[in-house]
Amino acid sequence: MLSAKTKTYDTIVVGAGISGIATAHKLQQVGYDHYVVLEKASRVGGTWRENTYPGCGCDVPSALYSFSFAPSYEWSNLFAKQPEILNYLEKVVQIFQLQEKILLNHELLDATWQEKQQCWKLQTSQGDFWAKTVVFGTGPITEPSMPKLKGIESFQGEIFHSARWNHDYDLTGKRVAVIGTGASAIQFVPQIQPLVKQLYVFQRTAPWVLPKADMTLNSSAKSLITQFPQIQRLWRGTVAQILNGINFGLRHPQALAPINFLGKQLLKLQIQDHVLREAVTPNFDIGCKRLLFANNYYPALQQSNTDLIPHGLVEVQGNTLIASNGQQHEVDVIIWGTGFEVSHPPIGKRVRNNKGQLLSELWKNSSPEAYLGASIADVPNAFLILGPSILVYDSFIGIAEAQVDYIVSGLLQMKEYQFTKFNVKPKVIKQHNEQVQKHLQTTVFNSGGCKSYYLDENGKNFAAWPWSLATLKSRLKQLNLKDYDLEF
């Protein structure tokens, strides 16, 4: 690994998760060598390093959830599990010799634009770094969302978030409360249910949970895929087309009406008890909130030691949990399945614009805006990967790679034309976001009758891309300098 030196890099990449690894590979590929990647942890992997809860895995098929430049033939399931994804990311770093560019245990503390020097000063846990440009690849799902709950400080038992799982604590024979029924909870609930004495699942809103077309890939299947790579290419293309179909439905909710009907009919087969079935039946259009996939979640809810509490948790009194309908339950453990801080990206607490203002302060009363999810107003020579208004129902890896192509094309143009500063034009970002918000109004995210993490506290959709994936990738092929103010 590199050692910290007082010099100015052409580019510094912050974060060595999916986005950071994709950026480093692209820079290597185009011969852009004067860069470094800063990673806060002692190993790469991002969200797949942080999330180690039981049952953790991907809800996008493995064939698509891999870099286009590094297909893997070693997945043990059609939907890969966390340990294999983390191992895959570490292997990619080794295969492409990216570790030489990655500084581990270098946490970003503050990033400030220096107008006089026309570069960025990055304060880290290991000293200061300087760079002409910065790429923030810190991801949208990194910081756990911890609810502020009345009386939580009085709880005497064990408490942790799914993204900070306490593997040293034995849940066997314990009374456990799971707060939330999102993507993480539906994966770990079936894993812990057989261990615990009693499981209380607090559900504020019933999610759509569809069957997961998963299967184990044995050594023979892996060998066949390795011998005939076209099998994986075909599967990758098939999955991509399926996701394109889902995206069409999300943009045109009327097309999802049959799926709404079939989904509710399927619940009649999956859950016999009519009270439980009514409690887990969503009251909004499919796709309005994140689609969830599982085969073992509903069976876990129907076990004798599991109680679904179809109400939010509102108060804690000692080890007594009180639901919004007044129900009380004594527990030994609270596990937060409450997701992540998405509407206000945590990186905003560490980045200042060209006026010295922390982005988190500017975003305090509204969610952030960006141009093509990458360029933020008054933040020159810097890019954000997987930023606002770019979410499409697809592999995060595919979206990140498309954005990296856009960003690197800008960095190469900076070298070619020798300008020292570029900043997205206020008019460009304003018009872009006006169009985004206008076209989101008819999507299921905004019109499907739910309150999801796609919407901020003001009801503004800060996350979703309102057009097709093909349109997104087309817009991201090349950075257009006409969209930016340049200084030479």
TrEMBL record:
Q: Name one GO molecular function term.
A: monooxygenase activity
Which domain of life, per UniProt? Bacteria
**Sorted UniProt keywords:** Monooxygenase, Oxidoreductase
Q: Which InterPro entries match?
A: FAD-bind_Monooxygenase_sf, FAD/NAD-bd_sf
SUPFAM superfamilies per UniProt: FAD/NAD(P)-binding domain
Which species is the source of this protein?
Acinetobacter celticus
Q: Does the keyword Oxidoreductase apply?
A: yes
Look up keyword Oxidoreductase and say if it applies: yes
Coiled coil where? none
Q: What is this protein called?
A: Cyclohexanone monooxygenase
Q: In the record, which residues are listed under signal peptide? A: none
